[in-house]
Amino acid sequence: MKFVTIWLFATLGILLSSSLSAQPWVSKMHNRSTNFYDIQQAFNADWGNKPYTRGNGWKQYKRWEAFWEPRVFPHGIRPPQNYAWKEHLKFQRTFPSSSNTGARNANWTPMGPFSWTNSSYNPGMGRVNAIAEDPNDPNTIYVGAPAGGCWKSTDGGNTWTVLTDHLQSLGVSAIAIDYTNSDVIYIGTGDDDANDTYSIGLLKSTDGGTTWHEVMPSSASIFGSKIFKVIIHPTDHNTVFLASSTGCHKSTDGGTTWSLLHSGSWRDMELKPGDPNTMYLANQSFYRTTNGGLTWNLVNVGLPQSSSINRAEIAVSAADPNYVYFVCGTSGNGSFYGLYRSTNSGTSFSLQANSPNIFASGMTGSNTTSGQSWYDMAIVASPTNANEIYIGGINVWKSTDGGLTYTIKSHWYYPPTVGYTHADIHTLEIFGNKLYCGSDGGIFKSTNGGNSFVDLSAGLSISQFYKIGGSEQVPHKIIGGTQDNGCNLLNNGVALHTNGGDGMETLISPFDSLVVYTSSQYGGFKRSINGGHTFTNIFPSKSGSGAWVTPLAMNPQDNDMLLAGFDQVYLTLDRGNSDSPISSFNLGGDLLRNIAIAPSDGYTHFYAGTYNQIFATANSGSSWTDITAGLPSSAMSSITVHPNNPLKLWVTFSGFQAGNKVYRSDDGGTTWVNISSNLPNIPVNCLIYQTGSADGIYIGTDVGIYYTDTLLAGWQQYMTGLPNVIVNDLEINYTIGKIRAGTYGRGIWESPIKQPVTTPPTANFGYSTHQICTTDSIEFSDASVDHAPNWTWHFPGGSPSTSTAQNPKVVYPATGIYNVTLIVQNINGVDSITKAVPVSYQPNILDFNLQLDNSPIDVAWDLQDNAGNVIYSSPLFGLSGQNNQLIHTPVCLAAGCYRLIMIDIASNGLCCSNGSGYYLLTDANGDTLAFGTNYGNRDTTDFCVNQPTPLSSGTSITHTDCGLSNGSIEVTALGGDGNFMYSINGGAAQASNIFNNLSAGSYTVMVEDGQGIQVSSTAVINSLNNPIAVASASATSIYLNQGGIANFFSTNSTNAAAYSWKFPDNTTSTQADPSFTFTTDGVQQVILTVTNGACSSSDTLNITVIDNLDVTKVENTANISILPNPIQDKFLLDIEFMKTQEAIEIVIHNALGQRVFWQEVNQVKTYQQQIHFGNEPNGVYVVTVLNKDMAVSKRFIKN
Hints:
The chain has seven helices and 97 strands. It is mostly beta strands and 1199 residues long.
């Protein structure tokens, strides 16, 4: 079994374009085993000293580099794509957010931006890569944002609703909607152009986007790949086509199963209008099929060599199904290579035009060597005019003569002389008379052939923020720097676009909210003194020479003093008009990434850091001390200083080095304390301290926000309401008590700050495994919430028997069930929990030997039991220093069947391109259970050890006495692995096989062995000696003129120890068979009650007493016939009345007096009906026919 391993940030960092192979740094990025620093070196060598010019793709690479470098520092090795998400879920399972005060205090709501006004040149909301219109409702539109998820509008784009905030991936680049059912939606996740967000492959919703599930082929070949396009077959909605980085795939059952139609990476795909068996694929080449993908032909006639182009897109038109357009970019510089057209369904092509350069940034296309077609390229053809096409690069161009000539229809500079669409076009779509454009700034629409465009982006909160800065004076004012959309001053959800390009570090003066600082990439700092309407360039000596996000800090005590980090720390005392260095670091060509000024001593205490060094000064920069010693080798991502103590500071770390996320120093960096505690292994991007708290700190990570303080033993999620999004920056506004988060893809959010804990803690813990080797220890993990950092553990029967460690390890003498107690406390109280922990020492000791090759972070393995549960999971092997090692792991298993899954990141197994390696699993006899070498990216082996007898169970039952709960069930289990746990009716499992004190009823008995294999059965406990009352009379019609006497009998009653009769005049009798004299006429009741111990039963007779002078009393009677009697599952009820009756009730009671049947009929003289009685238990029943004048009964028995 083979599959493509998921990689965290695979789309963040791998592939700027799957087709830019002519540039060596891009081709290296395709190979997951290529080191980041090798790619960086290749780019620098390829680019050389060429100057930066707009629209050449340099910025897009640098964006990728800036994102990825801190996450792989210092080794350059890229971990699996889903690694951070798995770590986040692991934390959630261990520390459920619903039970901690952090989650309860957090209540995140979006602040925007939701719309923009402009004082610069390229405003926008955020990037849009995909657009789709509901085929059943033209007012319903979907957009995919590569970092902001999937959004839906039901009013033509006036308002928007996000559908994907709960997903692990917020990037969406492909959308398809089922034309037979609009609730069925497919989305391709990730970023198919810039590749700087998560991807988890293809998702499907069947409820209009409320919920989503992964749609992957059984081979998992799409899992984690980039999805470029999804197309639903025009006449069979269950057939879906997929163009992805792992091939062209087809599903005929709505995504349940898939087949590979064509291997390779395909940027675009189209079906011939009217003939879906004819398909086209494009990357750097063009392929076509005429038999639904069974066979494919490479088309060369009229098309350029694949080595000459970097990428291609295709378009077709329903106006002429034989037309196919092929637009492509130049491999060397990304400029317009040409537009080619086929008029014979892709059999051959001819060049239509290769100029002007419609991929350049200018309005005339006269610059022939610039473009970034690997990043922004789109084409669409009119469905009503096959010669009308639109092509997008940085701008939108139109041709009405099949691509021979072009007219620019929109431009990226605002306001333009033509229509405005934000720079960098990623998708163009036509639905009806509407032309949609998705760009780096949002979604735009034209209804007049591109002559003008309307921005529909208002309401799409999809901005990708690097940094934010708030105003304490004006709480609703926030300035932020965004990817693609510059700097924006947010005021009540509306963004004033103040600066173009990419926005970075921003500040608002705490003394004057009109004083605003912004920056672009590499430290292009600007200052405004009128609230962001006009700006002045500052830091003149170093502007533009810093890191991608160049750090800037303001002295909170002095409005004029700022520090900026370039290759040195630069100081300005006049708001940036002039500057000078105050450090002389030897950084070896590196740049400063973080700057911090001590709030309580802003003139003397500063801190500055690169990724791997941090420096401190206590004398205004006259001298600096390297305080790096004691810190990990991961990339430092932020520095925060205590508001009142200049020597107390925190630093955070990016990357995937487990346990090294947050460090604190209480002595200015002389010593450091690791406070990462229980944090998941996720990159940490920023930290903020909450003034006035018990050292409360918040951190922003690649998956949300976490909080801790000195009153808590560990970190808590602080994410309620927040999407699963990268958080790059945090700010606190104390005026309103809110914390703000700048996210990478979902704008700015705010929440109330954490309040002190006012409730006792909640104790909880987990433990490592049920199946371990003899003498191995079980590791217990504290999962309590809201507790102070102290623990009291009790392990009766274990060694040690007590512990005060947070996560102790305990050895037990033998297999069994042991009680474990944990006690925790805080200032509000104490809580404890006791759990019965099953310990199962397994006799089957297997040897797992893993011989690594020399590929970095090459391999990992999982071992699953028969139920699919992962019982062993290895770390990633092949880290620095592990190459070519032989790693031995003993594995102890219960008898049963298992699955070994090998995963290889580089997709080359353990052989042979990077040396020779292998994996070998043997049993205690040395027999081979699993072996492999050259297995690609995944290998699966099923094996069994000492296969046990199948699990079975039986029960022995003790029934209850009448009315008591003294029944019992004893369970006998056979087979399995012998480690049985028992439960009834879904209750808690127990080691004892006997359940006592049970009342009468039906019970579901479950037996589970140590392998998780279950078997269930049903046991019924009956109540013994139940009395049943059956009353009868000498006659049911009595005449007063004949004396009115009737004899009553209890002869047919069963299990009766005592009798009680009740007569119409309220007199009683305890005789078994009494008599009674009636004195008045009418329908009268006689009730028999029999008892036996605590149980009783009653039966009622209806006696008709007739005055012989009243003829109507005789007429108001009925004859009841029941056939057969006794009955089984059904019977015929036949009633004949002496005269026509009104409002007749027909009622059947059981022996307990409970009504089991009722019917009302009117105006009847005869009644016949077949009664179905199969659901009623065996016993004695009474049918009664009555109205206001009569009551006649008849008894019957069900066998």
